Amino acid sequence: MSDDLARYSRQTLLPGFGERGQRRLLGSHALVVGCGALGCVASDLLVRGGVGRVTLIDRDVVETSNLHRQILFDEADAAEGLPKAEAARRRLARVNSGVRVAGIVADLEWRSAERLALDGPHGRPDVIVDGLDNYETRFLLNDLAVKHGIPYVYAGVVSTHGMVMPVVPDGARGETAGGERWGSGRPCLRCLFEEAPPAGSQPTCETVGVLGPAVTVVGGLASGEAFKILLGAWEAVSRRLVEVDLWRGERRDVPLDRVRDPACPCCARRRFDALEGRLG
Q: How far is the C-alpha of 57 from the C-alpha of 31, rounded, in Å?
């Protein structure tokens, strides 16, 4: 094994990886939107795993109340009130100097979403990973994914439970490990939730709290799906919405094969309401 891959030797032993897969990861780009709890876990795993370019977008600063679950930050970051995207970038640069990490301190909203996501320092991403805490911005990511054919890993966690679902648009086509052409036919986020829940109607970490280990589990599941997408292991990408509750020790898998909505405003009608400022 060449010296540049030696640090990944335990990973290249895995099925679907190998030296060829690792080099594919090193040439790929992951966009993580939100550097809160989920974004910290996912970006840390992606950088450690050798995803060559990682872009982080977040508007907030580090606070002491973040530290019990946001694993990239420490007390010094909170004392300085550092922007999360910058604090995360600094930490990840120390984790793996062979990966290029860009931190963008900005609010991803409909006027800026395409510019920030597609025209950033590393260009168009190969996968978008959800590190968010609200559905309004998730609908933006869903629109971006479907419009531009970029896979999107939806993830959310609150209290002791969370969920993960890969959104693989029809335009995100590639080859399987066996060299066969692959298509999608999977649902997008708006097939499940046509409208964003009204503001204040859903529990949040600020209202009901959040368990740190639940974040780690959900972030691990999300980054696992991102790795499969980046490796081109399409046949392994989950076709289920996975729900877990660490406190109750429960897991539920919801099959998605028949969930796609033929009248979905986004993936069926290709109407991108969130990107065009028509939601809310």
A: 8
Residue keyed to tokens 């959104």? 167
- Residue 70 backbone phi and psi in degrees, to 5: -95, 95
Which DSSP letter does residue 128 get? E
**Closest Cα to residue 70, out of 34, 100, 98, 101?**
34
Q: Are the beta carbons of 84 and 61 closer than 8 angstroms?
A: yes
* Residue whose C-alpha is closest to residue 40's, from 126, 152, 183, 155: 155
- Digitized pLDDT (tens) for each residue of the chain, 280 residues in all: 677 899 999 999 998 899 999 999 999 999 999 999 999 999 999 999 999 999 999 999 999 999 999 999 999 999 999 999 999 999 999 999 999 999 999 999 999 999 999 999 999 999 999 999 899 999 999 999 999 999 999 999 999 999 999 999 987 755 555 544 456 789 999 999 878 776 666 778 888 999 999 999 999 999 999 999 999 999 999 999 999 999 999 999 999 989 999 999 999 999 999 999 988 6
Task: Report helix, strand or coil for 77.
Answer: helix
If we measure between CA atoms, which residue out of 232, 227, 251 comes closest to residue 240?
251
Q: Long-range pairs for 77-86 at CB < 8 Å and ≥24 separation?
A: 83/58, 83/59, 84/35, 84/36, 84/56, 84/58, 84/60, 85/35, 85/56, 85/57, 85/58
